[in-house]
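Q: My labmate handed me this sequence with no annotations at all. I'd like to see what the chain might look like in three dimensions before we decide whether it's worth expressing. Could you predict it?
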Amino acid sequence: MKKYCLDLTVSQVEKFNAKYVLIKLTQEAPLPDMTPGQFVEVRVDDSPSTFLRRPISINFVDRTRNELWLLVAAIGDGTKRLARLQPGENVNCLFPLGNGFTLPDTPQKKVLLVGGGVGVAPLLYFGQVIKDCGGEPTFLLGARSSGDLLELDNFRSLGRVFITTEDGSEGEKGFVTNHSILGKETFDQISTCGPKPMMMAVARYALKANVDCEVSLENMMACGLGACLCCVEKTTAGNICVCKEGPVLNIKRLLWQI
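A: Here is what I predict for the chain of 258 residues:
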């Protein structure tokens, strides 16, 4: 897929809380084609301590409004600067990068999309694409508390949503792999993104249930093009650059202790 380096304009900024912000970007020309699970390398201007671009998952692509959505967790200097962006400002983006999720081969397949924290970001666009193809995704979303649950209305517009929180403030108390839905229903395909321990737990569940499973890795990715070698992951076929051959990989390719 062709890559672009474009100056996009901030059309809207939605702050969920002090940590999470949704940035919507646009341009006059139609946005390029993008696949759910791919990501954007964003240049951070006016941040003296930020020298490298920041990799941000593609949260959603609104073709009606010609907008690219980026869900940002303001943690370090770079992402905190991005969280301060205002409508009308320009942002230089290199995208779309990497390989995305595998679309179900039939709409009848039951697909479970599991996300934790800001890792829910790429699942929204994937859910929309599944729905556009005639399917109905099921979402299992986890967070520390109710205040960390993001974009719930958008997820609920696409399919069923099940929730876990570690403190029990919303949904079932515990982790996503403890949710009762996993003992009540079976699924044909699982896709997950979030903290590595969570994804490893989901992978263990998928292997035990004999369900095909893909994970979106969050290795440090400085260039996004496979040149800097800082995102290398060991696989069954040797070392790979996650930014180029991932970030989405089938768990059968990984050497996790699962």
